[in-house]
Amino acid sequence: MSDDGGLWLLLLGPAGATGLYWALYRYYRNTDKSHDFEHETAVEAKPVTGSDRKVDEVRGTQETRIDGDNVRAYRKRVTRIRRNSS
Amino acid sequence: MSNSASPPPVPPYTGPGSPQDVPPPPGSFPIDPASLPPPIRDELLAPDPVAIDTSAAELKDGLNRCPKCGATDIKQKPGSDLLICLYCRNEWHAQRVEEEFGLGEGLDQLEGTVIASGARDIAADAASVMTFKCTGCGAEVTVNTENAMTARCHWCRHVFGVNEQVANGAVPDAVLPFHIKKDDAVARIRQFVDKRRMFALKAFKEQFTPENVIGVYLPYMIVDGKASADVSGHGEILTRTYTQGSGDKKKTYYDADVYQVERHVDFTVDDLPLESSSERGNLDTGTNTNNIINTILPFDTKNAVKWNASYLSGFSSEKRDSGVEQLRPRLENQLLSIARAQVEASTSRYDRGVRWEQEGLSVHGTRWVSMYLPVWLYSYHQPGSNGGMLHYIAVNGRTGETMGSVPVQQWKLLLAALTVGSVLETIALMIVGNT
Ligand SMILES: [Zn+2]
Ligand SMILES: [Zn+2]
């Protein structure tokens, strides 16, 4: 049991109900679907280049992932650096 | 169970190109179906409509008059890319644009913006109704290019097609003929809906008539591109995991090294399809279900043939209203997403993830071809506020890939969720009560 004596278990009902509601809603309405162009387009890429430089250390965090992890959220745009496009 | 008295809020729509999240893999369901009551489980586990792969036969010359007898009563032979003369039953192929225009070649040498003639800007004053003088009997025949590209003379039955690329952008460069026949589309739509009956809106089930599906040619821009992208941000690598405290106060802590991460990738894309009707390109799932039609992409666009209105005989069509400049932001958006997907594998050592903070794109060259793509569309209008919602079930006219939006009976779905939630809650109460 965790530190709250297992009271978190009481969330099981509401969480289960909400989770099932949304899962079934999406199954019927498919609002989360779109063309997966990132993987279904014929892309030919040259080898990826780049650099990795250690800049800091994190000590004693309880988070399991980096804050703002977006490595798989390809469609979440971040600050755009404008360059000359021909 | 007090939090579920009303439906949970709809997740917000987030910006252009919605659904903004990378879609879940096909066939995935966030909850293990085995844990659900048998009727729901059975519905979820029933097989999906199968998409088939098509490969076109070799295609040669195509004319709008029958090359053998000169008749104009020409149709596409169902299920193939052949044209057939209804007068003398002669059959023949049209020319593939891939070879004709050299598409798919020289992607790595693309420079600037290359626009095929049918992808030119649409003239603002272009009329949608075009009139032809029948050479057979002299009567006037009109074709409304908003929704059709062919018409028949009522008097002598000559068939007219808009085959000239009038400079109004209404006529595409190429067309990808239907392969999936209507019977097949009806069967796929029926199968799709059969898997979603339990919580479907009662009126929808009562009025469900997949035979009313219509074949529509929808306008797309098929884009090739050469680009470079840079992304930068921070990544973390786990160095130590430890726990402090004991018993109920035990907590897990992590140490990590933080890296500045930079990535660069040069790439080309071949045949990226973009909706070139602004209405179809609007994927705001809060107001429409166009994302359903978007989901059945891609098409085997390599098999598209040179524009020939005879392929459109018997089908409906929609007109393009977006040009290259209107679509450029969406193209750049998608190129950035593709670049981000490309660099993902190079960040695998960052086991605590990467936070990209900046991204940049250089588009070196693009090539745009305007194309009609074949879609079977079944639609159902759900009445409601703000004009209700038009639900589509769409079948890719080439691969058979099927996707749809089935309106739900809200109270039934809530009841099922509450019931399953109550069972879980009872179990939870028993466990908590016993400790
Ligand atoms: Zn003939
Ligand atoms: Zn006539």
Write the layout of secondary structure elements.
The complex is a heterodimer of chains A (86) and B (435).
Chain A: H1 12-29, H2 37-40, E1 42-45, E2 49-61, E3 79-81
Chain B: H1 38-45, E1 74-76, E2 83-85, E3 91-92, H2 97-100, E4 112-115, E5 129-133, E6 140-144, E7 150-152, E8 159-161, E9 174-175, H3 182-194, H4 202-207, E10 214-244, E11 251-275, H5 278-281, H6 290-295, E12 305-306, E13 316-317, H7 324-344, E14 354-382, E15 389-396, E16 402-404, H8 410-434
Parallel strand pairs in B: 4-14, 9-14, 10-13
Antiparallel strand pairs in B: 1-2, 2-3, 5-6, 7-8, 9-12, 10-11, 10-14, 14-15, 15-16
The structure holds zinc ion (2 copies).
Task: Describe the structure concisely for a colleague.
Chain A is α+β, with helices and mostly antiparallel strands and 86 residues long. Chain A has helices spanning 12-29, 37-40, and strands at residues 42-45, 49-61, 79-81.
Shape descriptor of chain A reads flat
For the biggest sheet of chain B, the summary is: 9 strands, mixed
Strand content of chain B: 25-35%
H-E order of chain B = HEEEHEEEEEEHHEEHHEEHEEEH
Give the assembly state of these chains: heterodimer
Order of helices and strands of chain A: HHEEE
Strand fraction of chain A: 15-25%
Got a strand count of chain A? 3
Given as residue ranges, the uncertain stretches of chain B (5+ residues, pLDDT < 50) are: 1-5, 10-17, 52-63
Which ligands does the model contain, each kind named once? zinc ion
Proportion in helices of chain A: 25-40%
Q: What's the number of helices of chain B?
A: 8
Q: Structural class of the helix and strand makeup of chain B?
A: alpha+beta
Which pair has the most extensive contact?
A: A-B, 83 and 121 residues
Keyword list:
heterodimer, A: 86 residues, alpha+beta, 3 strands, 23% strand, flat, B: 435 residues, nine-stranded mixed β-sheet, disordered N terminus, binds zinc ion
